[in-house]
């Protein structure tokens, strides 16, 4: 919605400014409500900065390399998340929980804001793309007319089949992610694994998820988006099946399932973003991508809540099975 009034670079810089208080609040917060406030600011920061980097890369590369561009962007983000987790863990071990680990965020904010000052806006690239897109014929939905955010939200969420399918697949993918983050540590702990082994399992997953998006994005440009989305969801389902089938050897089950989940998610992530970019007109593409990311990322929260409900009611094994079935069923809508 904001992209209709402001340029990408303006929103990118604003996002970094809004995030400036976050590391300092986390480092010296006197109460839990300060932590909540910091998370609100962090959410706005991430929404603006990450969304604008995605949109700017898509503006720059054109339709033929969107998969690779989004794969590079997502890979950089998620590999950095993993590396930062390792770094903050080291700092917490040696210097305590506060303030040293949190102040690393101040370094990142300064770097992000400084680099954003050097970045050129992509408005000219977007204008060129708009000029090259033909005007729609009468009655085809007026796709070149800039619709309201409400209209774009509806089109991306349910009216347009392709955009709806991408939003649904993104939500299910992150629903699975939220479920596994909550369930896997408990599941493998119940079968005898210690903290170090569980940490290894949870570390392998995001590492492969991040790095794997670069070749996956390139592949999405070569063979299309749908094959990668369907394959990725099926690979995730197979990984969950391995987790259940090999529980008598929990470390092997955990590592193999983490590898499968990481590779499966890597196939899905850049392909879905590129798919939304393909089907949304550049006049309203940023709003469409924002809507898609809303549905995708709300899957984290829904997955975490669902994990708790299912695990309490039916047990951990049944919860993993439910995730598996969801992944398989979703391939039909992709």
SSE order and pairing:
Layout: H1 8-19, H2 22-28, H3 32-61, H4 66-95, H5 100-118, H6 123-132, H7 149-159, H8 161-190, H9 195-223, H10 225-245, H11 250-279, H12 285-314, H13 316-330
Roughly what percent helix? Answer: over 70%
Count of distinct strands: 0
- Report the mean per-residue pLDDT as an integer: 88
Gyration radius (Cα, Å) is 21 Å
Q: Which CATH class of the largest domain? A: Mainly Alpha
What are the secondary-structure elements, in order, as H or E? HHHHHHHHHHHHH
What is the terminal-to-terminal distance? 26 Å
User: How many domain units?
Assistant: 2
Give the CATH architecture of the largest domain: Up-down Bundle
CATH third-level topology of the largest domain: Growth Hormone, Chain: A
| Assembly level | single chain
Global outline? globular
What does the main sheet amount to?
none
Low-confidence stretches: 137-144
CATH superfamily of the largest domain: MFS general substrate transporter like domains
The secondary-structure class comes to mainly alpha
Strand content: under 5%
Helix count equals 13
Organism: Streptomyces citrinus
Protein name: MFS transporter
């Amino acid at each position: 919605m904001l992209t209709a009034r402001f340029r990408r670079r303006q929103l990118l810089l604003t996002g970094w400014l809004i995030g400036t208080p976050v590391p300092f609040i986390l480092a010296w917060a006197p109460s839990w409500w300060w932590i909540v406030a910091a998370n609100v600011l962090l959410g706005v920061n991430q929404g603006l900065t990450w969304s604008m980097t995605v949109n700017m890369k898509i503006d720059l590369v054109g339709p033929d390399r969107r998969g690779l561009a989004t794969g590079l962007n997502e890979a950089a983000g998620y590999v950095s998340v993993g590396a930062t987790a390792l770094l903050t863990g080291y700092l917490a071990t040696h210097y305590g929980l506060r303030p040293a680990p949190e102040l690393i965020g101040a370094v990142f904010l300064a770097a992000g804001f400084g680099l954003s000052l050097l970045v050129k806006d992509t408005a000219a690239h977007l204008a060129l793309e708009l000029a090259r897109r033909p005007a729609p014929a009468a009655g085809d939905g007026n796709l070149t007319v800039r619709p309201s955010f409400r209209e774009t939200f509806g089109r991306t969420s349910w009216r347009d089949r392709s955009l709806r399918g991408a939003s649904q697949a993104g939500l299910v993918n992150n629903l699975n992610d939220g479920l596994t983050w909550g369930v896997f540590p408990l599941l493998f702990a119940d079968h005898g694994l210690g903290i170090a082994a569980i940490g290894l399992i949870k570390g392998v997953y995001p590492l492969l998820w991040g790095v794997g998006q670069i070749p996956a994005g390139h592949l999405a440009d070569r063979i299309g988006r749908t094959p990668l989305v369907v394959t990725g969801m099926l690979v995730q389902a197979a990984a969950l099946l391995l987790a259940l089938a090999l529980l008598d050897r929990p470390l092997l089950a955990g590592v193999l399932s983490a590898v499968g989940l990481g590779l499966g998610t890597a196939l899905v992530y850049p392909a879905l973003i590129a798919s939304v970019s393909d089907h949304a007109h550049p006049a309203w593409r940023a709003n469409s991508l924002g809507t898609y990311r809303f549905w995708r990322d709300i899957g984290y929260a829904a997955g975490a809540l669902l994990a708790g409900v299912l695990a309490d009611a039916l047990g951990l094994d049944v919860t993993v099975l439910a995730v598996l079935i969801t992944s398989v069923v979703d391939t039909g809508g992709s």
